[in-house]
Amino acid sequence: MPNTSTRSERSLSLIFVFAGTLFVSATLMFILQPLYGKLMLPLLGGSPAVWNTCMVFYQMLLFFGYLYAHFISTRYKPLRQVQVHGALILISLIALPVGLPEIMTPPTESNPTLWLVGVLFISIGLPFFILSTTSPLIQKWFSHVGHHTSHDPYYLYAASNSGSLLALLSYPFIIEPNIGLSAQKITWSVGYIGLILLIAACAWLFIRLYQDSSNTEIDEQKVVQVEPTLLTKLHWLALAFVPSSLLLGLTNFVSTDIAAAPLLWIIPLTLYLLSFVLVFSRWAKGIHRVSVWLQPVVLLPFIAYSFINPAILPYWVDLVLHLCAFFLAVMVCHGELAKYRPHTAYLTLYYLIMSFAGMLGGMFNTFVAPFIFNGIYEYPIMIVAALLLRPADKIWQNQQWQVWAKQAGFPLLIFVLGWAIYLGVSDLGGYMDNIGTALILLAGLTYAFRKQALSLALFTGTIIFFIVGLRAIMSNTIYQERTFFGVVSVRDSVLLNEQGRPEKYKELFHGTTKHGAQRSGIHEQEPLTYYSRPGPMGQLFKEFDNSNQQWQIGIVGLGAGALACYAKPQQVWTFYEIDPVIVDIAKNINYFTYLQRCTPKAAMVIGDARLSLQSEADAKFDLLVIDAFSSDSVPTHLLTQEAIQLYLSKLTENGILAFHITNRHLALKKVLSDHAKQLGYAALIQEFKPQREIPLVIATDWFVLAKNEQALAPLYKQGLGLWQKPALYFDMKPWTDDFTNIVSIWK
């Protein structure tokens, strides 16, 4: 047997080697995640679901990596473990340098989730699998090298998560703003070679210093005494499953309304990993007590404002509330998980169950929830589930059923009374103020149940259930569908018309943002909202009214189809839309009739606009409109220099490119203005605000570009000051397919 002396018992260098290996492995893993998410975005229209699907892939490989580590560390002797792992590492080198396969065509008519998982597996499956095995396997090896801390190597998990945090925080603020994607891929590949050398050093120390922790009979008895029960394993599973699901739920919420970009994916994931660092630190007990105490304190304003009345708060305050509630929920769950960690003999089993639960949480959000829910309902469900997992020792006393009945009774009574009111009220609109006040008071009462996990969870769930139900009723939603690209809904609404009378109309929503509206009757063919006749697009079509009879027009982003009603009989219109559900809605005359009334013969091309436009002939269009949004965010790959050059190559010499840039959070005009300056294109901008109140005519921002000044001269010579030359921004670094940075354009 290898050396079993105690020379390594207090060696700091031993800790540095093993902890350093874990640190580097985690750093590489969590740089690869946003890097590949960013690489995949352009293929799928910039949908936030790309990141969630990538996360599920990572969680799946993490589970299989932990399963592999558990298997070889419990079945093979030290030398065999090193041989098997070394062979696998050598095989993984065929994936270097990392990059996307050259030939890839995402499906256009079906959900691309499985296609995306397959591409990720082919591209980075082997290297990521090696990274996923490192944490449990290196910790297991460390438990056998005779160090005085080998009996409890869980503190090394903090080193691993510190590396993860460093990678995640450095990516949006250091790596993404300064290093292009090509350089990132090469640098990562070099780092992977460095990791292999560190793993080799750990393997050499493991074989040289190996000590069998179960040599004595006393040790064997200890292992038997602490063997986890089935109930304990299920408890670990639940404590890891809920935070994983919450992570993807919050990520979906955060990235839907701003941009599908690494910065916004990283915020929830950073908090998620930070919780592991804290709960496995030496201050874990005190931190856990504080987290358990703070959770219901933050829950009160979170429910009252973020769920009951989010419009009352600025977006950033609402975002902070969501992040705080998420972080505390995860801290409580992970704190309980760390508190019940087992003997090192079961270390790999413990991590295996954690990774399995994480994978299940991701799969639930990505593969199950979209098919059983037509909205993002898994997020509030997991908020309630996290409350159920709060520590509550009273539940496990002898008179268990009495405790449950006492804790569940009042929330259930509120539920029954609320349901009776819900069914009995005929005019909900007249009662909404009172109902809202009552719900906020009930949210305040949740604090009274802070020490009773079951009551707090049921009470919170009851309030959220009624909020979701009332919103559905009050929004008059007549159709709702959840797709890979987001939640789409059609609503009946009421406005006061020109005569001051109430009039019904229909609205199209994607996520939380209105994407179009249509009135009925004599106004049925009137473009509204961002496309109104007084607005920038109305001005553009009017100004070229006498010269655009034969125009070929391309529209990227269909919406309700309002732009179609600017069409003339001799014109040829082509719509590019990535989501087939949007096409079905726009063509359904029960919802919107723009297409049927104005351009029934318009061509529809399903798929990402950039990929679709590449196959079109050069100089085909006289007008190309880019109006692609995912809720309120514009896919960043549609805003790069290469994208702009592609669009202009598809325009005639006097063709016009019109860009819709209305946005609550990002100053997209900076990006386009810089492109116009760098590429030498003529450009105008209009930040339109209605001069008088007209039904469904709203403020909107548009940017137009052309190959020469003469093409835009009719707009600029209007003399009304509406279309202006854009300002110059000298602090901008040009956005390319290799580089984007949303921090630089944050409003």
* Oligomeric grouping of the chains: single chain
Mean pLDDT across every amino acid position: 81
CATH topology of the largest domain: Growth Hormone, Chain: A
Helix content: 55-70%
Overall structural domain count: 3
Protein described:
By secondary structure, this protein is α/β, with parallel strands linked by helices. It folds into three domains: 12-366 and 375-391, MFS general substrate transporter like domains (Growth Hormone, Chain: A, Up-down Bundle), CATH 1.20.1250.20; 395-474, no CATH class; 531-745, Rossmann fold. The chain has 23 helices and eleven strands. The strands form two sheets. The protein has a seven-stranded mixed β-sheet, sandwiched between helices. Strands 1-2-3-4 form a four-stranded antiparallel β-sheet, with helices on both faces. A hairpin with a 2-residue loop joins β1 (477-483) and β2 (486-496). The longest helix is centred in the N-terminal third of the chain and has 30 residues, at 113-142. The radius of gyration is 29 Å and the shape is globular.
